[in-house]
Amino acid sequence: MNLLVVGSIGFDTVETPHGKSEKALGGTAVYCSVAASYFTKVGMVAAVGTDFPEQHTEFLRQKGIDLTGLMTLPGETFHWGGRYHPDMNGRDTLFTHLNVFQDFKPTLPKSYCSAPLVFLGNIHPQLQLHVLEQVQAPKLVALDTMNYWIEGTPDLLKEVLKKVDILFVNDEEARQLAGEMNLLRAARKIWSMGPRIIVIKKGEHGALLFYEGDIFFAPAYPLENVVDPTGAGDTFAGGFMGYLATSQNFDHNHLRCAMIYGSTLASFAVEDFSIEKLRTLQERDIFERFAAFQRLTQFSRE
Amino acid sequence: MNLLVVGSIGFDTVETPHGKSEKALGGTAVYCSVAASYFTKVGMVAAVGTDFPEQHTEFLRQKGIDLTGLMTLPGETFHWGGRYHPDMNGRDTLFTHLNVFQDFKPTLPKSYCSAPLVFLGNIHPQLQLHVLEQVQAPKLVALDTMNYWIEGTPDLLKEVLKKVDILFVNDEEARQLAGEMNLLRAARKIWSMGPRIIVIKKGEHGALLFYEGDIFFAPAYPLENVVDPTGAGDTFAGGFMGYLATSQNFDHNHLRCAMIYGSTLASFAVEDFSIEKLRTLQERDIFERFAAFQRLTQFSRE
What we know:
The structure is a homodimer. Chain A is of the alpha/beta class. Helix content of chain A is about 35%, strand content about 25%. Chain A has one domain: 3-Layer(aba) Sandwich (UDP-N-acetylmuramoyl-L-alanine:D-glutamate ligase), CATH 3.40.1190.20. The interface between A and B is large, with 37 and 37 residues.
């Protein structure tokens, strides 16, 4: 197992201008693991309730994901409901039923503790620290977080930040974490907090990579039909981490390719509700879109 | 003379979170011509009032810009005042004194009529048509327009669109012109209106080029200090058209380089008020930032 993924798993009920999806499979650990499964062997740590349908477990298993760390707890599965604005650039949360996610304490199966790459999805920083205490000498640890923890548990979050190599945040979170409007200056402040590699996601406006004084920009792929943006960020992280897990090389160009693989997987994810589009994706589709990304930005000086 | 530029010239009084600039040199024709002057010989068609300071004319002349087409009309020079929002993504117009610009009717000096490249800045479509009637067999004609003409004079605008090769618009204008929210579908509709080459500017989020079914994306350069975004779009057009005028090659890769030169010039323009930063820019600065743009987006598949 090359990549350990820790995060939420549950049901999403989502309304967008394109329709509605009821209690579909979702959650950070699902989007991230499924995306990464195209590149590498993933082990998932997450918790579901007793109502979690066997068909979902079976699907994840078919994707080659190690589910030894998937706990079934008494109670119902996490369920989130949201409605996107007409332009899809914002959304309102309609409900959040934490259910068994409330009692989730990530305990790693022994076979997971030697994972070389670790992705800590957006959960309580205390739980992220708890995971890091269990893994032995990982080569690369990535963290996702959000405004809720930046505001609510800043000290714990800073403690985790010192222990990770990569931080995934969106532009607003980066500004809030650094207390700095300008993203370049924000990235420099975040470097001093611990992470060597900072990925700032800007949704439909692409993503920025900051590493060793270097900046790389990956555009979002121009799509004709964005159906449901839910999980795009976690899918991005899955493509990014999955590619690095298989390449085992973390130099500048590999990190740049990871940005493009992340963008590639995310571009597919948003073309349908839930993880529908990722169910049937072929390796060929990924290679073709990666090549389309190259055509989108490459030029030679004349 | 390789590039004919038609548009406004005047004074801008601008407030941004970084300060205030009073009655500074501005206008489409100025930003565009000065940017293009780094690449090629530009001829400007515009009108000023009798109050226009000789120092501005002298500066434009020093940039090698042909001012045979600069008319001095009785009255005061165009003067625009605006205030940017704290995040600089929006602005309010405080006043627009059209003054002599009201009576501007672009009449081309004979020496301009054989210009191979033409940039029609954002003026009344009737005047844009009037310019096109005077030029003989140009190789490449570019047009800029805005919501005011899209709403106010749609038929005249459609007539001009049939006669141009390149359209420069921002994302909102593209959506409005095409009556289509999605930019890919909007570009396809605009192709059918005439322009073969469509450049959709997205401000701090970069710019898209649509040409022969192909899409190219140029990011905006990540800057630590954006002082004044006024004129960024016209500066972009100037870098774009100036580079094409000198390369005399309009194939895919040259158009892509033109996008990057446009972005390069615009990235300098916004780093200071008015055209201050463009006054002292060296060719070396342009080449260095062009190379920085390459580093920003280039990667090799591993």
